[in-house]
Amino acid sequence: MTNFLSVERALRTAAPHALLDVVRSVLAAHYGAHAVDLLMADYSQSVLQPVTALPHTAVAVSTRSSVQGRAFGSQEPQQEISAADDLIALHLPVTVRGDRLGVLTVRLTPSHCTAVAVRDLVDIAGLLGHEILVAERDTDVYLQARRVNRLTLAAEMQWQLLPARACARTEYSIGAQLEPAYAIRGDNFDWASTAENLTLTITNGMGEGIEASLLTNLAVNALRNARRAGIGIADQAALADQALYAEHGGSAHVSTLLLSFDLATGHVQVVDAGSPQLWRQRDKSVERVPFEAQLPLGMFDQTEYVLQEFRVLPGDRLIFVSDGVYAASSPAGEAYEKQALSRAITAAGLLAAADVPGAVLRELAAYRDADAEDDALVVCLDWHGRTSPT
Protein backbone atom coordinates (compact mmCIF):
# COMPACT_ATOMS: atom_id res chain seq x y z
CA MET A 1 0.00 0.00 0.00
CA THR A 2 2.90 2.37 0.67
CA ASN A 3 4.08 1.89 -2.91
CA PHE A 4 0.59 2.55 -4.26
CA LEU A 5 0.20 5.73 -2.20
CA SER A 6 3.55 6.98 -3.46
CA VAL A 7 2.43 6.47 -7.06
CA GLU A 8 -0.92 8.12 -6.38
CA ARG A 9 0.75 11.15 -4.84
CA ALA A 10 3.17 11.47 -7.75
CA LEU A 11 0.38 11.31 -10.35
CA ARG A 12 -1.78 13.87 -8.56
CA THR A 13 1.07 16.36 -8.48
CA ALA A 14 2.41 15.70 -12.00
CA ALA A 15 2.25 18.30 -14.73
CA PRO A 16 -0.66 17.49 -17.10
CA HIS A 17 1.60 16.75 -20.08
CA ALA A 18 4.03 14.66 -18.00
CA LEU A 19 1.77 11.93 -16.58
CA LEU A 20 3.42 9.17 -18.62
CA ASP A 21 6.95 10.28 -17.68
CA VAL A 22 5.98 10.37 -14.01
CA VAL A 23 4.26 6.98 -14.04
CA ARG A 24 7.32 5.48 -15.74
CA SER A 25 9.58 6.86 -13.04
CA VAL A 26 7.49 5.84 -10.04
CA LEU A 27 6.65 2.36 -11.37
CA ALA A 28 10.35 1.73 -11.95
CA ALA A 29 11.17 2.90 -8.43
CA HIS A 30 8.35 1.15 -6.54
CA TYR A 31 7.45 -1.88 -8.68
CA GLY A 32 10.67 -2.61 -10.59
CA ALA A 33 9.14 -1.79 -13.97
CA HIS A 34 11.61 -2.06 -16.86
CA ALA A 35 9.38 -0.16 -19.30
CA VAL A 36 5.97 1.51 -19.28
CA ASP A 37 3.86 2.47 -22.29
CA LEU A 38 0.46 4.12 -22.56
CA LEU A 39 -1.76 3.38 -25.55
CA MET A 40 -4.92 5.42 -26.22
CA ALA A 41 -7.91 4.15 -28.17
CA ASP A 42 -8.51 6.18 -31.32
CA TYR A 43 -11.85 7.80 -32.12
CA SER A 44 -13.06 4.80 -34.10
CA GLN A 45 -11.83 2.44 -31.35
CA SER A 46 -10.15 0.32 -34.01
CA VAL A 47 -6.56 0.82 -32.86
CA LEU A 48 -4.57 1.62 -29.73
CA GLN A 49 -1.97 4.31 -30.41
CA PRO A 50 1.05 4.90 -28.15
CA VAL A 51 1.38 8.26 -26.44
CA THR A 52 4.57 9.74 -27.90
CA ALA A 53 5.86 13.15 -28.84
CA LEU A 54 4.58 14.67 -32.08
CA PRO A 55 4.83 13.62 -34.82
CA HIS A 56 3.57 10.23 -33.64
CA THR A 57 5.88 7.57 -35.04
CA ALA A 58 5.22 4.59 -32.77
CA VAL A 59 3.22 1.77 -34.32
CA ALA A 60 -0.45 1.45 -33.36
CA VAL A 61 -1.94 -1.97 -32.55
CA SER A 62 -5.39 -3.33 -33.34
CA THR A 63 -8.08 -3.40 -30.68
CA ARG A 64 -9.32 -6.68 -32.14
CA SER A 65 -6.19 -8.70 -32.98
CA SER A 66 -3.58 -7.95 -30.32
CA VAL A 67 -2.92 -8.85 -26.70
CA GLN A 68 -3.34 -5.18 -25.79
CA GLY A 69 -6.65 -5.24 -27.64
CA ARG A 70 -7.78 -8.22 -25.56
CA ALA A 71 -7.10 -6.24 -22.40
CA PHE A 72 -9.03 -3.31 -23.86
CA GLY A 73 -11.98 -5.43 -24.95
CA SER A 74 -12.22 -7.79 -21.98
CA GLN A 75 -11.37 -5.11 -19.41
CA GLU A 76 -9.15 -7.66 -17.72
CA PRO A 77 -5.34 -7.65 -17.31
CA GLN A 78 -3.49 -9.68 -19.93
CA GLN A 79 0.04 -11.07 -19.59
CA GLU A 80 2.56 -11.63 -22.36
CA ILE A 81 5.99 -13.22 -21.81
CA SER A 82 8.90 -12.06 -23.96
CA ALA A 83 11.16 -14.90 -25.09
CA ALA A 84 13.98 -12.44 -25.74
CA ASP A 85 14.41 -11.10 -22.21
CA ASP A 86 11.97 -13.16 -20.05
CA LEU A 87 10.13 -10.00 -19.04
CA ILE A 88 6.38 -10.14 -18.49
CA ALA A 89 4.38 -7.49 -20.32
CA LEU A 90 1.33 -6.73 -18.20
CA HIS A 91 -1.42 -5.03 -20.27
CA LEU A 92 -3.88 -3.15 -18.04
CA PRO A 93 -7.15 -1.48 -19.12
CA VAL A 94 -7.25 2.28 -18.52
CA THR A 95 -10.93 2.86 -17.82
CA VAL A 96 -12.92 5.48 -15.92
CA ARG A 97 -16.46 4.56 -14.82
CA GLY A 98 -16.95 2.35 -17.81
CA ASP A 99 -15.35 4.70 -20.35
CA ARG A 100 -12.51 2.80 -22.03
CA LEU A 101 -9.59 5.15 -22.68
CA GLY A 102 -6.79 2.75 -23.53
CA VAL A 103 -4.22 0.33 -22.12
CA LEU A 104 -1.20 0.72 -19.83
CA THR A 105 1.58 -1.76 -20.55
CA VAL A 106 4.07 -2.43 -17.73
CA ARG A 107 7.07 -4.74 -18.30
CA LEU A 108 8.25 -6.58 -15.19
CA THR A 109 10.55 -9.42 -14.23
CA PRO A 110 8.68 -12.55 -13.07
CA SER A 111 9.83 -11.92 -9.49
CA HIS A 112 8.18 -8.48 -9.51
CA CYS A 113 4.96 -9.69 -11.15
CA THR A 114 3.31 -10.85 -7.92
CA ALA A 115 -0.43 -11.03 -7.25
CA VAL A 116 -0.17 -7.99 -4.97
CA ALA A 117 1.73 -5.99 -7.59
CA VAL A 118 -0.80 -6.88 -10.29
CA ARG A 119 -3.68 -5.72 -8.07
CA ASP A 120 -1.87 -2.46 -7.36
CA LEU A 121 -1.07 -1.90 -11.03
CA VAL A 122 -4.69 -2.49 -12.05
CA ASP A 123 -5.72 0.24 -9.60
CA ILE A 124 -2.92 2.51 -10.80
CA ALA A 125 -4.13 2.15 -14.40
CA GLY A 126 -7.58 3.30 -13.28
CA LEU A 127 -6.07 6.17 -11.33
CA LEU A 128 -4.07 7.18 -14.40
CA GLY A 129 -7.31 7.27 -16.40
CA HIS A 130 -8.84 9.74 -13.96
CA GLU A 131 -5.73 11.92 -14.13
CA ILE A 132 -5.77 11.85 -17.94
CA LEU A 133 -9.34 13.17 -18.01
CA VAL A 134 -8.38 15.99 -15.67
CA ALA A 135 -5.17 16.71 -17.60
CA GLU A 136 -7.06 17.01 -20.91
CA ARG A 137 -8.36 20.37 -19.70
CA ASP A 138 -4.80 21.69 -19.90
CA THR A 139 -2.94 19.67 -22.55
CA ASP A 140 -3.59 18.15 -25.98
CA VAL A 141 -1.09 15.30 -25.56
CA TYR A 142 -3.65 12.58 -24.87
CA LEU A 143 -6.23 13.85 -27.35
CA GLN A 144 -3.57 13.90 -30.07
CA ALA A 145 -2.70 10.30 -29.29
CA ARG A 146 -6.31 9.30 -30.00
CA ARG A 147 -6.04 10.45 -33.63
CA VAL A 148 -4.91 8.21 -36.42
CA ASN A 149 -6.02 10.84 -38.94
CA ARG A 150 -6.78 14.52 -38.76
CA LEU A 151 -10.34 15.37 -37.74
CA THR A 152 -12.44 17.64 -39.88
CA LEU A 153 -13.37 20.86 -38.09
CA ALA A 154 -16.98 19.69 -37.84
CA ALA A 155 -15.85 16.43 -36.24
CA GLU A 156 -13.58 18.33 -33.82
CA MET A 157 -16.58 20.35 -32.67
CA GLN A 158 -18.77 17.26 -32.30
CA TRP A 159 -16.26 15.19 -30.31
CA GLN A 160 -15.67 18.09 -27.92
CA LEU A 161 -19.43 18.27 -27.37
CA LEU A 162 -19.85 14.60 -26.47
CA PRO A 163 -19.76 13.01 -23.02
CA ALA A 164 -17.76 9.81 -22.59
CA ARG A 165 -18.22 6.99 -25.11
CA ALA A 166 -19.32 4.65 -22.33
CA CYS A 167 -20.35 4.75 -18.70
CA ALA A 168 -21.52 2.24 -16.14
CA ARG A 169 -23.53 2.33 -12.93
CA THR A 170 -25.25 -0.32 -10.87
CA GLU A 171 -28.53 0.26 -12.73
CA TYR A 172 -27.24 0.51 -16.31
CA SER A 173 -24.32 0.37 -18.73
CA ILE A 174 -24.05 2.59 -21.82
CA GLY A 175 -21.84 2.45 -24.90
CA ALA A 176 -21.93 4.75 -27.94
CA GLN A 177 -20.08 5.26 -31.19
CA LEU A 178 -20.18 7.66 -34.14
CA GLU A 179 -19.01 6.98 -37.68
CA PRO A 180 -17.27 8.16 -39.73
CA ALA A 181 -15.33 9.03 -36.58
CA TYR A 182 -13.01 11.54 -38.24
CA ALA A 183 -15.66 13.31 -40.33
CA ILE A 184 -18.91 13.32 -38.33
CA ARG A 185 -21.33 16.19 -38.83
CA GLY A 186 -24.72 16.42 -37.11
CA ASP A 187 -25.26 13.22 -35.12
CA ASN A 188 -24.78 13.43 -31.37
CA PHE A 189 -25.57 11.76 -28.06
CA ASP A 190 -25.63 13.06 -24.51
CA TRP A 191 -26.42 11.74 -21.06
CA ALA A 192 -26.46 12.85 -17.44
CA SER A 193 -27.50 11.12 -14.23
CA THR A 194 -28.51 11.91 -10.68
CA ALA A 195 -29.09 9.58 -7.74
CA GLU A 196 -32.56 8.76 -9.09
CA ASN A 197 -32.63 9.62 -12.78
CA LEU A 198 -30.83 9.13 -16.10
CA THR A 199 -31.46 11.56 -18.96
CA LEU A 200 -30.43 10.40 -22.43
CA THR A 201 -30.69 12.36 -25.68
CA ILE A 202 -29.99 11.34 -29.27
CA THR A 203 -29.82 14.21 -31.77
CA ASN A 204 -29.39 14.60 -35.51
CA GLY A 205 -28.89 18.10 -36.91
CA MET A 206 -29.79 18.73 -40.52
CA GLY A 207 -27.25 19.86 -43.09
CA GLU A 208 -23.59 19.07 -43.59
CA GLY A 209 -20.18 20.10 -42.29
CA ILE A 210 -19.82 23.12 -40.05
CA GLU A 211 -23.46 24.11 -40.55
CA ALA A 212 -24.69 20.80 -39.13
CA SER A 213 -22.17 20.88 -36.30
CA LEU A 214 -23.08 24.43 -35.24
CA LEU A 215 -26.77 23.56 -35.34
CA THR A 216 -26.26 20.46 -33.19
CA ASN A 217 -24.06 22.41 -30.76
CA LEU A 218 -26.84 24.95 -30.25
CA ALA A 219 -29.45 22.22 -29.74
CA VAL A 220 -27.39 20.16 -27.30
CA ASN A 221 -26.37 23.16 -25.21
CA ALA A 222 -29.95 24.43 -25.16
CA LEU A 223 -31.09 21.01 -23.91
CA ARG A 224 -28.31 20.95 -21.30
CA ASN A 225 -29.19 24.44 -20.14
CA ALA A 226 -32.81 23.43 -19.66
CA ARG A 227 -31.90 20.11 -18.02
CA ARG A 228 -29.56 21.83 -15.56
CA ALA A 229 -32.42 24.15 -14.60
CA GLY A 230 -34.12 21.05 -13.22
CA ILE A 231 -37.12 20.88 -15.57
CA GLY A 232 -38.65 17.84 -17.27
CA ILE A 233 -37.82 16.60 -20.75
CA ALA A 234 -41.00 17.95 -22.37
CA ASP A 235 -40.06 21.46 -21.26
CA GLN A 236 -36.42 20.81 -22.17
CA ALA A 237 -37.56 20.07 -25.71
CA ALA A 238 -39.79 23.15 -25.78
CA LEU A 239 -37.02 25.50 -24.62
CA ALA A 240 -34.50 24.03 -27.07
CA ASP A 241 -37.11 24.36 -29.81
CA GLN A 242 -37.52 28.05 -29.00
CA ALA A 243 -33.76 28.63 -28.99
CA LEU A 244 -33.35 27.02 -32.42
CA TYR A 245 -36.35 28.83 -33.91
CA ALA A 246 -35.16 32.17 -32.54
CA GLU A 247 -31.79 31.66 -34.24
CA HIS A 248 -32.89 30.11 -37.54
CA GLY A 249 -36.56 31.06 -37.96
CA GLY A 250 -37.55 27.54 -38.95
CA SER A 251 -35.00 27.19 -41.74
CA ALA A 252 -33.01 24.58 -39.76
CA HIS A 253 -34.12 21.92 -37.33
CA VAL A 254 -32.76 19.10 -35.19
CA SER A 255 -34.33 15.65 -34.89
CA THR A 256 -34.16 14.52 -31.27
CA LEU A 257 -35.15 11.62 -29.05
CA LEU A 258 -35.20 12.49 -25.34
CA LEU A 259 -35.61 9.94 -22.56
CA SER A 260 -35.76 10.17 -18.78
CA PHE A 261 -35.25 6.92 -16.83
CA ASP A 262 -36.38 6.45 -13.22
CA LEU A 263 -33.52 4.37 -11.84
CA ALA A 264 -35.59 2.82 -9.07
CA THR A 265 -38.55 1.62 -11.17
CA GLY A 266 -37.44 1.49 -14.82
CA HIS A 267 -40.26 3.88 -15.73
CA VAL A 268 -39.26 5.91 -18.80
CA GLN A 269 -40.62 9.20 -20.12
CA VAL A 270 -40.02 9.93 -23.80
CA VAL A 271 -40.24 12.85 -26.20
CA ASP A 272 -39.87 11.76 -29.83
CA ALA A 273 -39.05 14.89 -31.81
CA GLY A 274 -37.72 13.47 -35.05
CA SER A 275 -35.87 10.64 -36.67
CA PRO A 276 -33.72 8.65 -34.15
CA GLN A 277 -35.14 5.17 -33.51
CA LEU A 278 -35.22 2.89 -30.47
CA TRP A 279 -34.91 -0.91 -30.74
CA ARG A 280 -35.27 -3.27 -27.79
CA GLN A 281 -33.77 -6.69 -27.24
CA ARG A 282 -35.70 -8.56 -24.55
CA ASP A 283 -34.71 -12.17 -24.05
CA LYS A 284 -34.25 -13.42 -27.64
CA SER A 285 -36.71 -11.00 -29.23
CA VAL A 286 -35.56 -7.87 -31.07
CA GLU A 287 -38.14 -5.28 -32.07
CA ARG A 288 -38.47 -1.60 -32.74
CA VAL A 289 -40.20 0.43 -30.02
CA PRO A 290 -42.30 3.01 -31.88
CA PHE A 291 -43.41 6.35 -30.47
CA GLU A 292 -45.75 9.04 -31.73
CA ALA A 293 -43.46 11.31 -33.72
CA GLN A 294 -43.62 15.02 -32.94
CA LEU A 295 -42.06 17.97 -34.72
CA PRO A 296 -38.25 18.28 -34.78
CA LEU A 297 -36.75 21.01 -32.62
CA GLY A 298 -36.73 24.43 -34.27
CA MET A 299 -39.14 23.71 -37.11
CA PHE A 300 -41.98 25.95 -35.85
CA ASP A 301 -42.41 28.59 -33.18
CA GLN A 302 -43.77 27.66 -29.75
CA THR A 303 -44.12 23.92 -30.39
CA GLU A 304 -45.55 21.99 -27.45
CA TYR A 305 -44.16 18.53 -26.73
CA VAL A 306 -46.10 15.68 -25.15
CA LEU A 307 -44.61 12.96 -22.98
CA GLN A 308 -44.98 9.29 -23.80
CA GLU A 309 -44.12 6.46 -21.46
CA PHE A 310 -42.88 2.89 -21.34
CA ARG A 311 -40.97 0.67 -18.93
CA VAL A 312 -37.67 -1.18 -19.09
CA LEU A 313 -37.09 -4.46 -17.30
CA PRO A 314 -33.84 -5.85 -15.88
CA GLY A 315 -32.03 -7.59 -18.73
CA ASP A 316 -33.45 -5.31 -21.44
CA ARG A 317 -31.04 -3.97 -24.03
CA LEU A 318 -32.01 -0.72 -25.75
CA ILE A 319 -30.35 0.24 -29.04
CA PHE A 320 -30.70 3.79 -30.36
CA VAL A 321 -29.81 4.45 -33.99
CA SER A 322 -29.75 7.50 -36.24
CA ASP A 323 -31.16 7.56 -39.76
CA GLY A 324 -27.65 7.01 -41.06
CA VAL A 325 -27.98 3.49 -39.64
CA TYR A 326 -31.56 2.33 -40.10
CA ALA A 327 -32.13 4.08 -43.45
CA ALA A 328 -28.82 2.99 -44.99
CA SER A 329 -29.38 0.91 -48.12
CA SER A 330 -27.70 -2.19 -49.43
CA PRO A 331 -26.47 -2.18 -53.04
CA ALA A 332 -29.80 -3.88 -53.84
CA GLY A 333 -31.71 -0.99 -52.27
CA GLU A 334 -32.99 -2.67 -49.08
CA ALA A 335 -32.94 -0.49 -45.95
CA TYR A 336 -30.80 -1.73 -43.05
CA GLU A 337 -33.76 -1.65 -40.67
CA LYS A 338 -35.75 -4.19 -42.70
CA GLN A 339 -33.89 -7.26 -41.49
CA ALA A 340 -30.17 -6.60 -41.18
CA LEU A 341 -30.37 -4.32 -38.13
CA SER A 342 -32.26 -6.90 -36.10
CA ARG A 343 -29.72 -9.55 -37.10
CA ALA A 344 -26.80 -7.30 -36.12
CA ILE A 345 -28.34 -6.61 -32.69
CA THR A 346 -28.93 -10.31 -32.13
CA ALA A 347 -25.38 -11.19 -33.20
CA ALA A 348 -24.00 -8.74 -30.63
CA GLY A 349 -26.13 -10.20 -27.85
CA LEU A 350 -23.23 -11.54 -25.79
CA LEU A 351 -21.11 -8.40 -26.03
CA ALA A 352 -20.86 -5.75 -23.33
CA ALA A 353 -22.78 -2.53 -23.94
CA ALA A 354 -19.55 -0.64 -24.74
CA ASP A 355 -18.75 -3.12 -27.55
CA VAL A 356 -22.19 -3.28 -29.18
CA PRO A 357 -22.15 0.03 -31.13
CA GLY A 358 -18.87 -0.86 -32.85
CA ALA A 359 -20.15 -4.33 -33.73
CA VAL A 360 -23.37 -2.96 -35.25
CA LEU A 361 -21.48 -0.30 -37.19
CA ARG A 362 -19.06 -2.88 -38.60
CA GLU A 363 -22.03 -4.93 -39.80
CA LEU A 364 -23.48 -1.76 -41.31
CA ALA A 365 -20.25 -0.98 -43.17
CA ALA A 366 -20.30 -4.43 -44.74
CA TYR A 367 -23.98 -4.08 -45.67
CA ARG A 368 -24.44 -0.65 -47.15
CA ASP A 369 -23.45 1.04 -50.37
CA ALA A 370 -19.73 1.86 -50.18
CA ASP A 371 -20.43 5.42 -51.31
CA ALA A 372 -22.79 6.24 -48.42
CA GLU A 373 -21.64 9.34 -46.55
CA ASP A 374 -24.29 9.99 -43.89
CA ASP A 375 -23.38 10.00 -40.21
CA ALA A 376 -24.11 6.75 -38.38
CA LEU A 377 -24.76 6.75 -34.63
CA VAL A 378 -25.42 3.76 -32.36
CA VAL A 379 -26.02 3.96 -28.60
CA CYS A 380 -26.53 0.81 -26.50
CA LEU A 381 -28.06 0.89 -23.02
CA ASP A 382 -28.16 -2.29 -20.95
CA TRP A 383 -30.69 -2.01 -18.14
CA HIS A 384 -29.72 -3.89 -14.96
CA GLY A 385 -32.26 -2.32 -12.63
CA ARG A 386 -31.91 -1.53 -8.98
CA THR A 387 -31.87 -4.56 -6.72
CA SER A 388 -31.44 -2.80 -3.39
CA PRO A 389 -31.79 0.74 -1.99
CA THR A 390 -28.80 3.03 -2.61
Automatic annotation (TrEMBL):
Keywords: Hydrolase. It comes from the Bacteria. Pfam families: SpoIIE. Residues 169-383 form the PPM-type phosphatase domain. The keyword Hydrolase applies. GO terms for molecular function: phosphatase activity. This is Serine/threonine-protein phosphatase. It comes from Actinacidiphila bryophytorum.
